[in-house]
Write a structure and sequence with these properties.
mainly beta; Quinone Oxidoreductase, Chain A, domain 1; three-stranded antiparallel β-sheet; 2 helices; 10% helix; globular
Length: 122
Amino acid sequence: MKKMKAALMYGPGDIRYEQVERPCCPEGGFLLKVKAVGLCGSDIRNLLTDSKAGRYPHIYGHEIVGEIVEIDENVTKYQRGQMVYVYPMAHCLRCENCRNGKHECCTEAESYTDLQGGLQSI
């Protein structure tokens, strides 16, 4: 498997730049080369406290901008080389709030706080 670099947090104030396995391109999706990561107030708090309650290592940075470097053959809306912003929440697009355009109130949104973030580079 291919490797990439990432900033892994092992505990409060313990961040290490290490080699990790590069993910495979997901079916119906794409892989990004991260160009920028925003760190919000909750990221800073998480990096300084044990907010993950011992569930380490973890890669922070859920506000991501990157370039598509690999894309599933069935994806037609995006293309290799395109710059995209990754919205930090995966809304269901099925609940009443989503159907009414109120995605921020989605009742089935995937929790992004447990997903690995963008402080990584392929």
